[in-house]
Description:
Residues 7-224 form the GmrSD restriction endonucleases N-terminal domain. The protein has 439 residues and is α/β, with parallel strands linked by helices. It is 60% helix and 9% strand.
Amino acid sequence: MNPNKTIKEFFEGEKQYTIPVYQRAYSWDEKQWNDFLEDLLEATKGDNHYFFGNVLLEKTDENKTNGIDIIDGQQRITTIIIFARALINALEQKAKNQRLDEEKSNEEFLRYIKEDFLIYRSKPKLQAVEYDRDYFKDVIIQNDNNKHNPQTPSQERIKKAKEFFTKELEKRGSQEILALFKALENAEILSVPFTNKKDSVLMFELQNNRGKDLTNLEKLKSYLAYQIYTYCDKETAETKLREITDIFKEIYRLINAIKNNEDSILNWFNISKFGFEYRENDNEKNYKKEYKRATETKSNEEKIAWIENYVKELKNAFVNFKEFEGSKSVYKDYLLYLNVWEIYPFILKAYRIFKGEQELEQVFKALEIIALRDKLVRTRADLASRLNSVLKNFNSVESLILGLQKICSDEWRYWSDGNFSNGLINIYKENDKKSLPTY
């Protein structure tokens, strides 16, 4: 592969690019879309070609010269394809009343753009990450807006990106749209090839500080993919990665149905497993450390089994948090209203321990006491560190209640009855001796 290409050369012919399963899904939003469009508009005003930057690529099969994975640069490449779809739609409308090209008929000219940027001989130019692939193909490649409703945050962004570019291009005349197309065709890109899957996954991890930041959930997924490629042969690695990708697909669908963000739930889940010493952004105190600690003396098969079990438990945490948010418990309502984050790891652990609603209700009721005290007392004391032993010893409703009673006792002082009473008095004063808020 020649590393220096125009965008036209990058896509033309039978080339087909794929975003591999360990990659992040589409994450760009209006700021990045607007920057993309502004850069292209700027390129139409001068003789210099716009430079899209570097793209890291891996040939997926030595016997198939046209199959290529995108290791880094997938956000830009995906946006180019979405923009091309919106541009083609805009030109199709213009073609009803005027000629677009001096040499080609309108039909031939539009077919030429579609074959270069969208689909060639029934092969899409870009296959999105697996759990968004069908949606991307239908909405962007096939231009069918009615076949799917967005099921994941990334699918919602794909839809909105298409709408954004469609709206922007509707404002412009044919000549300006054609100038944008020429600027896109002639823009330059530097493609850097890789041939080793393990190195490709590692390079993705090393590149994750570029562009829009990866979420912690995306960083976790790429780290686990690297471990799988490290400790499995190629065939087994592909099978295991597909299985884990299917689980992450379910997680991304659950994210749309949960009010809290994905990284918060990931953090609370890990704290529920490993304790309040856990730090998501510290490699000496996060899942990397826990994985190494649990598996450093284990066989390769046991390392992979740890990953599989961890990912299944993580998915269950998202399922359980959705159930918690949908619970009819009045104490659940109180907990969400108070929104003391330190209680959420207890809730996720409770769902792992208990199956019955009665026990969960008792847990919610006990947690509401410490959450309300923490809100009213307003101490600077660190609640998380005090709750650490309670969380680790939590294996029954009784153990939870006993642990929380100690936190609320005079021995610990901060959340004691006396300080709680003072907190209530202060609330009355702050509200001019009127009734307490609805809670």
